[in-house]
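@channel anyone free to eyeball this complex?
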Amino acid sequence: MNKPLDVVIIGAGTAGLAALREVKKRTTNFAIINDGPWGTICARVGCMPSKALVEAAKAFHRRITFEEFGIHGANALAADMPAVLKRVRKLRDGFVASTLKMTEVLGKQAISGRARLLGVGRLEVNGRELHARNIIIATGSRPVVPASWRALGERILTTDTLFEQENLPTNMAVIGLGAIGVEMAQALSRLGLNVTAFNESNTIAGLHDPKVNEVATELLKQEFTLYGGEKADLAAADAGANGGVRVRSKTKEVVVDRVLVSLGRRPNIDDLGLETLGIELDTQGLPPVDPHTMQVADLPIFMTGDANKRKALLHEAADDGHIAGINATRATPVRFERRAPLAIVFSEPGIAIAGSNYESLDPGTALTGEVRFERQGRARAAQRNKGILRLYAQPVTGRLVGCEMCAPGAEHMAHLLALAIGRSLTVHDMLRLPFYHPVMEEGLRTALRDLAAQLPHCNESDLAGCEAFHAEALD
Amino acid sequence: MNKPLDVVIIGAGTAGLAALREVKKRTTNFAIINDGPWGTICARVGCMPSKALVEAAKAFHRRITFEEFGIHGANALAADMPAVLKRVRKLRDGFVASTLKMTEVLGKQAISGRARLLGVGRLEVNGRELHARNIIIATGSRPVVPASWRALGERILTTDTLFEQENLPTNMAVIGLGAIGVEMAQALSRLGLNVTAFNESNTIAGLHDPKVNEVATELLKQEFTLYGGEKADLAAADAGANGGVRVRSKTKEVVVDRVLVSLGRRPNIDDLGLETLGIELDTQGLPPVDPHTMQVADLPIFMTGDANKRKALLHEAADDGHIAGINATRATPVRFERRAPLAIVFSEPGIAIAGSNYESLDPGTALTGEVRFERQGRARAAQRNKGILRLYAQPVTGRLVGCEMCAPGAEHMAHLLALAIGRSLTVHDMLRLPFYHPVMEEGLRTALRDLAAQLPHCNESDLAGCEAFHAEALD
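replying in thread with the prediction:
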């Protein structure tokens, strides 16, 4: 039997690398095992290539404002899809390389292979048994593709394959409008493809607030065909291996060249051997994980990142790994307070939720404040005057608890509000902030003032009591 | 003698309108007097038309990234300056109209004319004497133009006349690179004009931090000719009334068609009769004003907005007016706590200062944290990877005290930091914030971590202690 390692990390994605960073500080007796290509989901097939594509699409789409701005010649612009995708891969390769630096220096401590648990403290990789005092599971996730669709072969794309395409055909369907589906459907449509999107539910992009969802849906419908409340099924449109796909929902039908399937991601836990741990697994095969310690039940095992299906977000995966890396090198785990919730979809206008979402509010008591951006001064000057922002606050105290928005500058305002919510600030506290002029954040101030009008008045000597001018030039 | 009014407001700009909003709530016995066109500096000749122009220039300039993104045809784009300026005026007219609504409803209480103080409680307008228990001075400001340059007539432009031009000539000089000079020089250059800018000092855009100033200056120099440390003088280049202008500094000389003079703004206090108040005026002719009450000495007179030369910023002018409007209707004035300092220049990258600027720091103790955006992930995906952000914090406590930046997303990060500084938050508090991935704010986090490394370690159980991956894809 091999000498036991202090820690084995299974998976070298974001969570695994964050765990590695902490483990390395505390012991040299560790190994990290990775199945498939090294490099994180984020860098290889997630955040980074998708944002490289989204930014190209945003830049190209800006041309629809050019005539209004007094800029001629926009008709001559053309998005060269092979060139767009080539740049995405070039950037991606650089981002992937940046993530490899942490494991390249490890020598034999970095093991390529598929790990399988044999029980608490035991695992197998490449036919070899390892013993580990602590195990960190950070095996990540992969796109969900219904089994019956796999026969469609290359006619089906996921984010695992989308960015590998040399080119994309004219007619595409996007199935599923969560964060990834919305970002990709809008980006591909903006880059000139004819996109038809199907979403089983009537809410998109993880939104809960019906007003924000309605605005977001209507704005996206102006750019591509969007069928909400339509569960789609796929079938080959013809016999050829490279033929089209028939997409059919209850009331809609379309034949397209390729389909991007964006139905979410599934934890990579198949054949991982979780059943050997002797603890109860849920219906999805997942063990119980404490989000404050990342510990699995009371075992010396920690489960992090997409694998634990808690929140498939990079910053949460990094925190998971950080916590697990520390706790896997201690006799007793320490408990961490998690960060305020924050979710962003990089559409345009951006979609974001910070703090509590609409669904988790007490409908009987929560106050809501709202602003629409059609008449907002800066948004008009920038030809970006579309969208809505809704804020939620406690009655009487005016403490901000959450927000949902589809608004220009959403990703920035969401950080400002995440700070406010995380610090338990009130509407009044936020109205003490200097709002420079003219900025999108003045729209946020309008929503704050909408809330302030529902709260007890503040002292006469407090600038937070400043009211709106009700003049576009000034608010 | 007329029955005395409770309040007379002199000037219907932003400060005057803010005062009016509060006065109206408390008395009907008031008047507001305005000299020249009604409508605010902001709407007529300031923030709003300048931002309409800046946004057109930004949209047009984005084409330099198009080839890299995979978008062809950018060479066919042309900025049609008459069309650009026409849109600016169209938007401006709407913004001005929005500011007129507050005074249009006042009937005879809104007086067009030039007011002159005759003493405490007495003033004259249109040859008629008014008595007022309280007077609010909100006369605004106008662009500084050296007397000897006025002979150059229409060859000289200021923001009062720039947006009125049907077209602009190819060769322009910009004299003075404060906020307005930087915004306009960059915008005009981006719209295709050949711009040569002179700045007497070597620091631009109100910056104090030499590193930030250096980056900002170098980035602007890539777009137009910028001579820093060169005080310019102007002379007619030929005898014709519509001829050019010779701009000459100690070591540089250029002949241009028109010159935009952006040397700052001067309070409108000439012939206002401040000398009749019986109090000492400073060398500029300004009386002492308490920024917490807006009161002039101990008189029932209040001085607000650009006129008091405190800070020529819209949000400060609005606060000034708010305070004065309340205090002019009270027996004893109440003191207001002012907001955290915030200044933004809408260049690209944006320039911003929140809280204490670099010059006001104690050089022996203040800590600085820094990030450059060349390798920042999101900035690279967006082809906006230029700029620098510097944060200042107290030693030991790590309390954030200020920042200066020339960075992508500056206007948004400046609001986030203004909130943090206004709430006396620490580096540690800010590192508790969720930073979504990938966003420009992760650059700000890098600067926070740079500060954190100079501060005592935080508890092992605190996510604020999460360190960087030192991988572009993840930080």
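from a first look: The longest strand of chain A covers residues 128-137.
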